[in-house]
Structure to design on (451 residues):
């Protein structure tokens, strides 16, 4: 997610030697010295490359608490540095006790959301039993891996409560990369353009066995403070806290710049 | 260069698009209508790769018309926008993707509300109170941010739109000379002289 500067080999005529994605360069800086083996043939250029994962911006974070989970996202939709909308939610309900967050290319966020809605509806019709988070996580994983060599540019985060054989619920959070590699966590999952900042803040604020209200405070502070240091995320946030008997959804106002 | 703007008001959506048709640095035509009427209460301004634009717009226009003929009622703006978005998103991963940016504005006669959608060639869709595409968006979005009133009258909306267009004409080197403005409200679609 953080490969923004890339070395690109350029021939004296200016033609590209090695592939850079089309629609990239906004700035280019020549390096002072050119490595010997490239000398007369080509030059190494450090070039700004806008990754498709960062094009629209946006971040999602999920956290586990005591008998509850929380998931939150920011509301920005951009096209590069330009902000297009400030009402773009990236978290969608799957069942009463499970929410899915999708960060990445906004087009794929909506496409995947529609795809998962179709797949979960089909599951309910065919199986007539509730869809559990662990089942859905593998559905997400296989759906993404189906597109292994032409992926959806989205990194999903799933937060839900899993029903145990005894009838109680246990927190279940999982994230995947864009080709569906599952990443189970006991504490928190982060994704999106502010993921590096989210990691830092979450690492500092999260503690085990938080009650719903404390978990709400922790996840809100984590998202807000991480997102304020990221130009591509922000413009308010939505937080869902999932408990066995209810889901609390709150919209937060952040720094509106 | 191509510019299109749109904004919603109390019970209408205003859509404006420039009327130039250009190849490279040459103006070929200065009275091209780049806002299609998709159904009695739905407008779509299109811009992008020449050729793709008209092909895609006509494909959308005819499919929405077909839905209207088959069902005797038109697709609502929300559903139409979702279908148009999906067409672009599917096209993006085909061998020859359409490179078309759209502003879809409609008036929902079922609940009497205006709707505006910003859609780009990637299949990104945003539900917005005002929107712009092209170089004009760099000048207009900040102005619209400051002056847009979601409950404004048509006169107020037109004044705001005029501000955006005037600023673009003043500051943009490659500003288009002429715009076509259409409005959609409970009475349907009509063209307005700015």
């Amino acid at each position: 997610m953080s490969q923004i500067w890339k070395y690109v080999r350029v021939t004296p005529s200016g033609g590209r030697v090695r592939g850079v994605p089309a629609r990239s360069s906004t700035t280019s800086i020549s390096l002072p010295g050119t490595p010997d083996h490239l000398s007369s043939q080509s030059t190494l250029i450090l070039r700004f490359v806008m990754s498709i994962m960062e094009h629209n911006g946006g971040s999602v974070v999920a956290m586990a608490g005591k008998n509850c989970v929380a998931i939150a996202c920011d509301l920005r939709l951009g096209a590069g540095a330009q902000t297009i909308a400030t009402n773009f939610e990236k978290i969608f309900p799957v069942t009463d006790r499970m929410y899915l967050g999708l960060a990445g290319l906004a087009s794929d966020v909506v496409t995947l959301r529609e795809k998962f809605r179709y797949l979960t509806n089909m599951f309910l019709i065919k199986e007539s039993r509730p869809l559990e988070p662990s089942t859905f996580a593998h559905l997400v994983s296989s759906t993404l891996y189906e597109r292994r060599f032409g992926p959806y540019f989205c990194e999903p985060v799933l937060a839900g409560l899993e029903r145990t054989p005894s009838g109680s619920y246990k927190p279940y959070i999982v994230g995947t990369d864009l080709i569906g590699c599952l990443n189970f966590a006991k504490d928190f999952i982060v994704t999106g353009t502010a993921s590096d900042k989210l990691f830092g803040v979450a690492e500092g604020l999260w503690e085990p066995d938080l009650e719903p209200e404390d978990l709400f405070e922790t996840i809100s502070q984590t998202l807000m403070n991480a997102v304020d240091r990221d130009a591509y995320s922000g413009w308010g946030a939505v937080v869902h806290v999932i408990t066995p008997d209810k889901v609390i959804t709150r919209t937060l106002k952040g720094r509106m710049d | 260069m191509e510019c299109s703007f749109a904004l919603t008001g109390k019970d209408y959506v205003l859509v404006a698009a420039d009327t130039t048709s250009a190849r490279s640095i040459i103006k070929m035509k200065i009275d091209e209508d780049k806002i299609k009427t998709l159904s009695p209460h739905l407008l779509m301004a299109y811009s992008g790769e020449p050729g793709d634009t008209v092909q895609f717009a006509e494909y959308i226009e005819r499919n929405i018309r077909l839905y209207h003929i088959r069902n005797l009622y038109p697709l609502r703006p929300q559903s139409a926008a979702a279908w148009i978005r999906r067409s672009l998103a599917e096209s993006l991963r085909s061998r020859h993707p359409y490179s078309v940016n759209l502003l879809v504005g409609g008036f929902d006669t079922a609940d009497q509300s205006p709707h505006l959608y910003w859609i780009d060639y990637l299949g990104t869709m945003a539900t917005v109170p005002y929107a712009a595409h092209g170089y004009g968006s760099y000048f207009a979005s900040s102005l619209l941010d400051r002056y847009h009133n979601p409950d404004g009258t048509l006169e107020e909306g037109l004044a705001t739109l005029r501000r955006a267009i005037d600023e673009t004409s003043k500051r943009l080197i490659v500003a288009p000379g002429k715009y076509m403005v259409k409005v959609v409200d409970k009475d349907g679609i009509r063209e307005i002289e700015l």
Notes: Chain B is about 35% helix and 35% strand. The mean pLDDT of chain B is 97. Chain B touches chain A at residues 85-86, 88-89, 92-93, 118, 120, 122-128, 131, 137-138, 141 (CB under 8 Å).
